[in-house]
């Protein structure tokens, strides 16, 4: 979801100072950053990242107030509070004059946007600010934490008090103190009265943060306990506070809250981060999940990180960054999927294998919109000394660069099948060459409505085989990204981006207006009238519907929220737009077929129908309100809604293969409420009318049932509006990303062969599975998950630039950190779903799903993965498995013709120690080898021969190798024949080795009900007898001399004789059938000495008995034409009582022998 890119950037303070920064705090909007050193307060601007103003304490004031500790901004950025040795130092942040800027952007002469673009200075120029200190406040105790409220500043001190200071008035009326001992703490709010309570004597709050959506304070106490304090009224007073604490936790170190998902992340001394939620029923703290390094991925460092030092949620609350006392950074998604960690791989090791010490971090903060992470490194003991002459510049501030998924900004992109990433000033898109698919996309319009052709570029209508043939190559054919540089004037605060379903057009909205970009023409389309652009701002995002851009925006002229549709091919002008007024602000937007769904700030959901009209010279769209649903009873705060989606998913009965109504109409609304996936389904409990019985103008939409919670800890949701009768399982499913729990799919279950489903069976099932990548898009019909991953490249050119050998923050960044790139990744998920269905005894559904995907090019690999994963888990388990799954998987694979290839490929990719367990479940490898011979699959049989070589004695291997060698000779598989010759020669050296015998298929514990393996086997003795002559027996053994010096030579001679006998026999077989062409190929391919052998056989097999038949066979074999006599010369073959002789110059008959000249 978030990915590192490039190297970090070092920001150096232009002012000379011996003090190094140690603390950084962003303003509410993250436009400014307050940076503290011991006696200095600096204000930095976010973009561009420059120093604006710096306040240096005088020596007298520094002696009185001591060193600075921490800082906090007032919500409107007009004041800064700095904690210093028991004092609160308040600073007014005063802005300069309206046209006074510290840094201004310089444009070339004649650039139009300097003059005509309103507000360009506010967007790209750093303002000039001044700091003015007010009267300090003495709290007479060390300060441990600062927390800014709307009008108040909450200060925690080491004497156990909470001081509430008013930002504007600090007299007797603007200050009050609350003792922590007066706040009752309990395990939940229900037992608050009369229940067990904490003894808070000599305890104070070490760290605290306010959560807006929970309306309370998450706190870490000095004794390590974790708590949550909530005000029972509207004010923070002693008698209005109530606290709950988490049981069995005594090592808390720090805390950070997530306002969007209502989570509290507590760092612990053990190095683990505990993420808690508040139970809405009891008010107790419940553990949601943990963030911790695992010994599997970090065996050397997972238990040596030290206590958690800092936790920082990103501005969009989708990821969290963690650092420890021993250093390092680790990035997790909101529900625990690890994305980045600098304690392993190239971050922790140099190219020569030596280990780097992780950089210890003193403070860190996310920049605006999460594209930067500002990090203040901690100075080690060496760097604390004055800098040496050879030292590089001081540490300064490190700025890490990130790109993130568009799902974090505009959730409506989840219904697309492309991966779209946001950078600070550019977009990264995964798709094929747009020039190849331009014609196809123009014919389809690329929207969200219509049939399958309106969906992914992977699925074209029947008339576009060329576009369909691109298939997976369009999205998976190459690794590079399409990088689109976004207009500078669009890059302000939060900006949106959306791509059409064909992956060819991009719409981008920023501070004012929007624009769209064509990947085919590589051109932007902008508003022709800049006034129209400046009079609107996109509020709820934007989406594509067919060839229209759907925008939820605010009109500054009319002061009205509006829904607008702009045609892609027309000029970007309001004259060509379809405008619909909205009653409230729009927060989220999404499109489903010919409908658009809006989530508004009043917690209501509105459904609008979209219709294209071609009446005028330019096509237009009409918008009509269909339905409005109020969700105020279920949503405590509108900011908690992560995404809203209109789908065709439903749970009611009537889902059959005969009447696929799925993906046709909007059946339900999916709402991601702070990680809870809520479903509102249409109420079909009453009498239903068929669509053809309802007049077109009198269709009334059904109301929705009360909401139902489908899943917890949901980060992203994917669904599609396309339909495909052959792959209904995949297209009608609901796909969820759930953090550390992996992915989940809500899969429909269909009866087979049009049978009536059982009333007691569920129509859908939720299946969890784990994948190795973070999912960003789902290719529904191709059974693939698309994602992105960080790749690193070490650069040693400047390694060791510092004076010392140990790593330090002042070393060149190229030596401290590898260069980070972002690569496209994909992963197959079908084998996970098939396995989960088999575990739940839903083999019939698994078979239907697998048969629908059997045409995928990687379907054999899916089968191998399923066998391999189950085999690894069961065969390496330390405890006995009461109900093993491997026999069921083996029986399932036998339903497909690739069964034999799947087993042998899986075996060859698995350790030898696991073969016994594998073949005890799937059958004896000798029987499987014979099945390959029966099916004429010689390449697979050769793979089984390698298995037999390792599991059987050499005599058995030679016997089966002989069978395969003879079959390969007969079919002319010359490459395989050469391999078999080398194989037979190598067997003799292992004659004395006796590996473990092949497991029997008759063990009842593992192979019960698998008699079909034996029934399908052929008799090995019969096969051997069929190819054995009277003088040659495949079971022949050779006497081996006992002398050690002659043993190797005797074995080699015996093996060569054994092979020569088989070659001679095949040559005689070919000559008997007068297959001289095959005999020549046989000799040329295998180096057979044909001339000498023919001389020896001239009076035996090479003697011709039927000259006429041999001659005809020779003509047919070499495709020679038979001689044709002229019509005038046709007469009896007997002339003058004698037979006319015919002589072919190419064949000479000599002594009854045919010789090729």
3D architecture notes:
InterPro entries: Ric1, RIC1_C, WD40/YVTN_repeat-like_dom_sf, WD40_repeat_dom_sf. Keywords: Membrane. Residues 444-453 have a biased composition (Gly residues). This is Protein RIC1 homolog. One of its GO terms (biological process) is retrograde transport, endosome to Golgi. The protein is α+β, with helices and mostly antiparallel strands. It has 27 helices and 63 strands. Strands 1, 2, 31, 32, 33, 34, 35 and 36 form an eight-stranded antiparallel sheet that branches. Strands 7, 8, 9, 12 and 13 form a five-stranded antiparallel sheet that branches. Strand 14 (143-148) and strand 15 (152-157) form a beta hairpin. Helix 11 (830-839) packs antiparallel against helix 12 (843-852), helix 11 packs across helix 13 and helix 18 runs antiparallel to helix 19 (954-971). The longest helix has 29 residues, at 1044-1072. The two termini are 74 Å apart.
Give the overall shape: elongated
The Cα radius of gyration reads 39 Å
Proportion of residues in β-strands: 25-35%
Distance between termini? 74 Å
Note poorly predicted spans: 381-385, 387-393, 433-474, 653-663, 694-698, 799-806, 998-1045, 1134-1157
Overall residue-averaged pLDDT value: 80
| Structure summary, number of beta strands | 63
Helix content: 10-25%
Supply the number of helical segments.
Answer: 27
Instruction: Please identify the structural class as seen in this structure.
Output: alpha+beta
Biggest pleated sheet: 8 strands, antiparallel
Subcellular location: Membrane
Region (Disordered): 439-463
Domain RIC1 C-terminal alpha solenoid region: 831-989
Pfam families: Beta-prop_RIC1_2nd, RIC1
